[in-house]
Amino acid sequence: MQIGILECGRLPDEMSATLGQYPPMFERLLAGHGFRFRSWHVEGMDFPDSVTAADGWLITGSRHGAYEDHAFIPPLEAFIRDAFAAHVPVVGICFGHQIMAQALGGRVEKFAGGWAVGAQDYDFDTGPIRLNAWHQDQVVTPPETAQTVARNAFCAHAGLLYPGQGFSVQAHPEFPDSVVQGLIDHRGPGIVPDPLLKAAQSGLGRADSQPVAQRIASFFRHNAQVRA
């Protein structure tokens, strides 16, 4: 089964030199589930020829806002809608979670409550899970077709399920602690309030991505029509 990774952003050069980029992180997150992977850098306008070029799609994070004016956003939204229409399953992470919701009629905005960075506790429909996060934008109004399956006091729609078609989470299950540390060092100062950065630092080592990795893998397996 092939999973197509739609790369919507890249980590800063000072981080990627040692930590890599999003696609290998997702490959490690989903290792052991029998998937093959291929990546397209959609932020750079490299799109698949068809929504059936992979058996399922995974949309990554990005430094961009889903509501911003960037060339890749309208065709990405159209691709999401076309994938849903063709019954090809889609998973979104952080920006991917947001752009899926926006493409399907929801609303995303820069949250007035500020940032969530580092390990965060979420109430999933399957029980509590602690995941690494790094965001200010969030889904404030889900699409009518979505079910909220994860939340906390800061983020009311931290996980969305589109039955049989899509699953998305606001947090970053693919982020190891080394990436969070890199963001604390290179993207946090002067942007994220110092108390939040200190809390993120002290929370290193406390996240557990495996429950969400298992759910993503199960979602793909149960909803994909594997193509030769």
UniProtKB/TrEMBL annotation:
| InterPro entries reported in the protein's UniProt record | ChyE-like, Class_I_gatase-like, GATASE
**Highest rank taxon of the organism:** Bacteria
Q: Name one GO cellular component term.
A: cytosol
| GO molecular function terms attached to this record | GMP synthase (glutamine-hydrolyzing) activity
- Look up the EC number in the record and give it: 6.3.5.2
- The top EC class is ligase
Assigned keywords, A-Z: Ligase
Gene3D superfamilies per UniProt: 3.40.50.880
Indicate the segments forming the Glutamine amidotransferase domain, all copies: 74-175
The UniProt record lists the keyword Coiled coil: no
The protein's name: GMP synthase [glutamine-hydrolyzing]
